[in-house]
Description:
By secondary structure, the protein is an alpha+beta fold. Helix 3 packs antiparallel against helix 4. The radius of gyration is 32 Å and the shape is elongated. It starts with 8 loop residues before the first strand and ends in a 15-residue tail after the last helix.
Amino acid sequence: xxxxxxxxxxxxxxxxxxxxxxxxxxxxxxxxxxxxxxxxxxxxxxxxxxxxxxxxxxxxxxxxxxxxxxxxxxxxxxxxxxxxxxxxxxxxxxxxxxxxxxxxxxxxxxxxxxxxxxxxxxxxxxxxxxxxxxxxxxxxxxxxxxxxxxxxxxxxxxxxxxxxxxxxxxxxxxxxxxxxxxxxxxxxxxxxxxxxxxxxxxxxxxxxxxxxxxxxxxxxxxxxxxxxxxxxxxxxxxxxxxxxxxxxxxxxxxxxxxxxxxxxxxxxxxxxxxxxxxxxxxxxxxxxxxxxxxxxxxxxxxxxxxxxxxxxxxxxxxxxxxxxxxxxxxxxxxxxxxxxxxxxxxxxxxxxxxxxxxxxxxxxxxxxxxxxxxxxxxxxxxxxxxxxxxxxxxxxxxxxxxxxxxxxxxxxxxxxxxxxxxxxxxxxxxxxxxxxxxxxxxxxxxxxxxxxxxxxxxxxxxxxxxxxxxxxxxxxxxxxxxxxxxxxxxxxxxxxxxxxxxxxxxxxxxxxxxxxxxxxxxxxxxxxxxxxxxxxxxxxxxxxxxxxxxxxxxxxxxxxxxxxxxxxxxxxxxxxxxxxxxxxxxxxxxxxxxxxxxxxxxxxxxxxxxxxxxxxxxxxxxxxxxxxxxxxxxxxxxxxxxxxxxxxxxxxxxxxxxxxxxxxxxxxxxxxxxxxxxxxxxxxxxxxxxxxxxxxxxxxxxxxxxxxxxxxxxxxxxxxxxxxxxxxxxxxxxx
Length: 735
């Protein structure tokens, strides 16, 4: 009987700093029986899988990963240092912050305390010693000094290569490096062999530093939340770790302090800078009852905030979690490159063997010369730069997006968004503020007060902006409404409830017409109001039309400019709304986009399917009523500053609630794909050039190793440029 784990098991893996490292971990654990759904995230340093404990235990998984030289610890435990130490005694790769709460990211150790740092220092010292012997003594002593330097330097590399081979992965950079170094010794190139080992260590160190820089972009998000909080306990203020805050506690946030937890303002009025969370630079006025996010900065006056979410669930924590999870949603380009690399390295090994053997056998070439060229070809062949080209760019883009209020859930979403040529917008809460107001009350068989009272009662507890606008207006007018029963909703049309034995409905005028209660006067009044661009709802029972309510929701200030920006990028915009045709036409003309009106939720889905037939479509909705449409589009983006739906459900979210951020998201996606194409070109271009020069004898071993590690470093540094990308900047057509 199978004992497959009901939930994936997760570990923190340290020591991974390139795509090849992640591939090694994945390959090692995938070969274990009973292991499935393996997910290795390079930037998040995460291994996740499902496990059949009857076939393989968690301890065996950990042993397999440690056997590759990586550190591994269960999720939540202290990070384990990698096991790849060289010469000097092992020390921690990362040092926990003294007194840091559980779950804090460890502080990275100085480079010279890491395993790769120690290897660099050791191989450098050995090479310098050998060069000193050559300068001072020379002759055979110098030769043997280089031999010793090579053997000592290559030993840990060869040991790791052997571990990889035993795990079923013979074609690794460590194996190629070991063969090249030892082969160079056999043909008498001891000095060059020692230099190649040192340059390999330099490349490994640079890869580690570059990968750490990429991770810092994500870790910086977590650092936005202060480590301590000032809790109000009666008349006193007590400072405690922010991780220990519980829901319901009141915290004091002084001017200049960061908010330590998600919550609502209990007392005080102040401007709050939410740019660390949403990227919005203008402070937002916060009054009692207003929501605030962890990590935002109190700018003006003291606030007392009631905690509404535990530390692990605050907005920053969820964004960090989603950005890290997004790494698992790999882009199609990344999957293709991974498949390509599986046969690329064996092909290079075969080509190296042909170069080393055929010319001497067929054309009588010198064995030493062609073996040397074959060894150089081996070093060029490692696909590290190619494998890291996509995930490094994606990780940088995700971090940049999060800093600017653009949440994208993975490489697949970024690649799909970059192809967008049509954006479909919901109206209410997306193109408009989502805060409609009642502008007219038309009483047809009762008083205006009766119309508003009945409508507010039916809409009690409504989440839709129109329903909330009605109840807000009733409260403003001091109207009390009766209790209701048997309440329900008519999706996309309205709501109903029973009051004093009568079932009342509040909904679109067509509902009243279908019920047979819409009078000629009522129809004429509704048409006149709709012609003014207002949304009209009817209040009626089974036998009479009580009256009409007209509401208007103003467009967002940046809506028209956003549509213009998209047009300049070659992207068409269209509005899909459940409102009537007149209201849709009025708003569409005001903003400058096409529209489809009178759409029920299922009609929006049908309209999107028609659009998808000829376009690559992004759907932008308010994250509440548009779930089917968001799921239907190629990319579904939710508006919303940290709402649970926006963060958890859609493919992405615009945390600043700005329509203009749609264009910013497309710019970031397009820039990321351009960066990926540059990286692939760098990786393949450099290798292509040096493959030719190596076969022709123009370049040798040390240039070959620079071609490999240099390409990896260049690709990573190019990807890091995305950390400084400003998606708000308008660019010419094509982004």
